[in-house]
What we know:
Helix content: under 10%
Distance between the termini: 24 Å
Radius of gyration: 26 Å
Number of strands: 44
Largest sheet: 26 strands, mixed
Number of helices: 2
Strand content: over 45%
Amino acid sequence: MKFRLTPIAASLLAAFSTYALAESESPLQSQVKTLGTVTVTGGQPSSLPSQIPTTMEGVTGKQIEETINATDSEDALKYFPSLLVRKRYVADYNHAVLSSRASGTGNSARSAVYADGILLSNYLGNGATYAPRWGLVTPEEIDRVDVMYGPFSAAYSGNSVGAVVDYVTRMPTKLEAHAKVSYFSEPFDLYNSSTTAHGLQSSASLGNKSGDWSWWFNANHTDSHGQPLTFPTRAISTTAPAAGAVAVNGAVAGLDRTNTPWWILGTATTYHTVQDHFKAKLAYDFSPTIRASYTFGYWQNTSEGRPESYLTNALTGAPVYNGPISINGKGYTLAASDFNLSNESLQHMMHGLSVKSNTQATWDWEVAASMYSYGKDQLRTATVALPSALSGGSGTIQDQDGTGWNTLAFKGTWRPQGIKGEHIIDFGLQQESYQLHILKSNIAGNWMNDDAGTLANEVGGKTQLRSFYAQDRWTLSPKWQAVLGARAENWQAWNGFTRFSATSNATYAARDENFISPKAALSYQWAGDTVLKASTGRAVRMPTVAELYGATSTTNSQFINDPNLSPEKSWTTELTVEKDLGNALLRLTFFTENVHDSLYSQTTFDPTANKNISRVQNVGRIQTNGVELAFNGNDIFRKGLDLSGSITYADSRIKENAGFVSVPGDTIDKYQPRVPVWRATSLATYRFNPQWMASFGARYSGNQYSTLNNSDPNGFAYQGASKYFTTDLRVRYQIAKQWTASFGIDNLNNYQYWNFHPYPQRTYVAELKFDM
């Protein structure tokens, strides 16, 4: 599927083309447009559904390699209309949340990410620390990425309300080998920090098809030093210093996200991350129409979070980390947690097994199972102050070993009149099971190495979703096509508990609830080059285990759960006109979403407790109305110049809410957090000759808020969410048949912008690649 995004400098030309996918077994290469759908042949099959006339987008691995400085798999989504991944640095493993038209970067559970049909989205919780497991796919193994916007297929749970993303990875038809090495560097200057974040990444892959067997192996190693992400702060004091307070220099005066003056005292989290990825795929063809496939993925991550104090003793110049201090003659107290140290060690594994038929005759079927497990997941943090913490001392260890999820699906396709018949019916049974266990313990001796000691807190629980779906693609006439479907779901939650000591133990009643979500879509071939499409669907997003049971409390943060949360219920509708311009596609989509009982985790700072307090709650109703304009063209104005881009307008507001932030009613008619009113993307690619090509991209996002009552107008502050306009450059040179070199700059204009944490500043990327 052609997808060459383009920066059209003023961002006025917009858009991606809207494609709809044909048979779930059909790939996206050679395109035949019919009634707003695209039937394609060749390549690997997508797991996206058959014949849904709604908004779909795609990009091939070749296009990613040519146009995007892709160091992580989520970079492939960089120029998709209305999508944003909150990636803070290369190898960001715990905060890279996907947002969509009507969902912000705090709602990770409102999108669905798959790799070869295997679930990568982490529905154990909702929010920054439950981002999709992007590390189980590397950019080099991507064959194609497909995105369906909205909950318009009955084959997906209510988590698809924002978008469904499917990564299709390579499975060769002949012997092939690839290797790549890349280096990245980000000079970073903010407050009193002046450093260079940098890293090295290498990958290798090998695959072949021999007879009925196909196989593919991929390995990737990343060593990344990120920029500072968090900053200890203090509100301006009016009190005198305590006796013995140390007078300090170096504090940076600034404004917080509410425009209240404060001091920035240093950095608290700068990660050094080392990741290793290994992927093995095996496939066996029992016959020309039946294939069995197995996928194994291994991902390990070790990271060290280290702080830096801006404060120095006014007399000696020595750094200051703890105790009473004096800034400009006013008193403050530093806690050990202000400059916190952390070590994290993760080892996660993924398994996927499927057997499917592809006869394209009356019946086709598939049986698929997958499992994602936290083999090891341990986070160690110091509770003793610097500099002692560098050599040991007290701390905590958080252990999530045994956490994970598994899926099982039985799918079928019935074509009573054949592949070109009036009806094509998809149906299936599905089960998704999630188990969360978080044990946090104190360490009295050495926080870096010692075993767990006394209990700090423990949470756990299970949820399960069982579903039956069916949908019928009905060709009403040569110009009219409809898709009618429904999804019936049974959701259960049980074994929920929270524990803070041997005597402080809460258990929660089991829940068992049923829901039905109807879907419908219609397309009309208005003219030979113009298609009209309409889609509508209900989505029920179930509460996650962490939202129900995950109460936690630390020195500087607290999360308050709610076992009685209602599921989030959405109705989403879109109307689209799509015009074929010959060498380009133009799409205009109107969309609306009405969400009842929206699930929101809202974080506020409690100055009395000196910690961040997060509460999960149902917000009565959020209404979003918007329009998306998209353009995608090849050889525009001159041969070799591809242009694409998108502009999105979304008015997303809270219409009903019994809860409030400060006073009753303070959230009514306020903007939904982190859903900007305006967004735009563009990308231009030009091939100078067979050896040289270059791409220039641009992305824009307007003002946004992080709080339900929009009390944070200053986005350009730590914990704020700002507008941004960034540009990217990539130049690629074909050295020889098997060798290519690339150089790129992300955030070329060095725009400093925020989404709670600071985004990367200007970043340089150099690559050398071998293909055989």
